[in-house]
Amino acid sequence: MSKKKKVKHSNIPLLLILLLITGACSIAAVYQYLKNRPAENVTAAPQNVRRESEKTSVSNGKQGSPDKKNASSEKNNGAETTQVDPEVKPAENASLSDGISDTKQDNSKTEEASVSADPQINELMANMTLHDKICQMFIVTPESLTGYDLVTQSGTATLDSLQKYPVGGLIYFAQNLEDKAQTKEMISATQSSNSVVSDIPLFISVDEEGGIVARCAEKLGTTDFDPMYTYRAEGAEKAYSNAYTIAQDIASLGFNLDFAPVADTWSNPDNTVIGTRAYSDDFSETATLVASAVKGFNDGGVACTIKHFPGHGDTAEDSHVGMACSYKTIAELEKQEYLAFESGIAAGADMVMVGHITMVNVDNIPSSLSKTFMTDELRGKLGFKGLIITDALGMGALSNYYSSDEIAVEVIKAGGDILLMPADLSQAVTGVENAVTNGEITEQRINESVIRILELKKKRGIL
User: Fold this and answer.
1) Torsion of CA 423, 424, 429, 435, to 10 degrees
2) What domains sit in the chain, N to C, each tagged with a CATH number?
3) Which of 23, 398, 425, 447 has its CA 20 to 30 A from that of 168?
4) Taken in order 156, 160, 163, 169, is the CA torsion positive or negative?
5) What contacts 210, CB < 8 A, 6 or more positions away?
6) Comparing C-alpha atoms, which of 296, 460, 333, 301 is closest to residue 387?
7) Can you tell me the distance from the alpha carbon of 323 to that of 442, in angstroms, rounded to the nearest whole number?
8) What is the pTM of this model?
9) 163-190, pLDDT tens digit by residue?
10) What are the catalytic residues?
């Protein structure tokens, strides 16, 4: 008994040594693993930007009520909209991801340099956040910005809203205009509010074509014109003088951007959305008259916009209400509709507005969402270097089928610079921010558009 106990006792130091060696080896192995393990992938959660409902009244003393309606049912775009079955999609375009672009933007491709030749613009860009830059790409109604049903003066609600969404510009309709004094004060106060939150003044825009689309003539008593079509026999000189007068009239009120002249040709007698808004029913004559009108607007002191590329004059449907189709081929457009856009660009048009026309025999998607028409045709073939703006994004041709965030992302991917009047501004801005976060759109792509915007604002004396 005593001998066995002695033997067992004598083995204890050896066992302790073995345990210490084993433990040391284990600790060393764990340390090496932790030291050399691969770094974990971390995906940043997209920032969720939401606009708070305005609860204070506009400073004109009128009680403002927050707009709680679905944005797609608003009438602030100046045209009645008709509800359609939301399940009905444009032909062969069941979803944006299927019908427009099913791949993410290739960030490895060489893009146009996102640096301006102007040091002032580069300095402004350097001080802008991604949110600031994205907001600069939107022009909206004051109602969409503030959440009110009607805005006729600029006050606290406008200032607060511009702090949240420093947009590139506002568009005013007849409902916002009471008289010349009120209009001047509203525009001046709006620019003053904007200067508190941004070093970049706003585009202050209006649809003032003359004739049946003339907000200022209708409400403020500026020069009244018949539809432009009625002057076609009087030639280029009359087209110039009409545009020059319109530009001077609205510039005196504080507007610096006009969504005119119409460059569509009234080639389809069944077309009701354009009709006598066009300068002619002859493609060559339209080209001559539109070029003169562009010069008139430029000399009159406002930036101008030729519309609605690639041509809305041959459609039978109204894109305000729903899908509008054209069945022309590229070859036909080159000989017909493109003539007026080419002449308008050559005459110095600042912007080209792309319409929501579905070109059935080309890519069968709305042109405002089409890389083929915005980038390949307008930028490439026609050589346009200025700003590409969409028609109002709340119009039925888009909003009946797609959400504001889907639309905004696809417009930018297609090559658009300014997004006009989305049905839901907050949703549209957030959608673009998320697309940049997940790599669907590069920030360089955003920068390219913002530089174009700032360069035009400086050229026109806005900046």
Assistant:
1) -80
2) 71-459 (3.20.20.300)
3) 398
4) negative
5) 217, 225, 226, 227, 228, 242, 246, 260
6) 460
7) 30
8) 0.78
9) 999 999 999 999 999 999 999 999 999 9
10) 320, 391
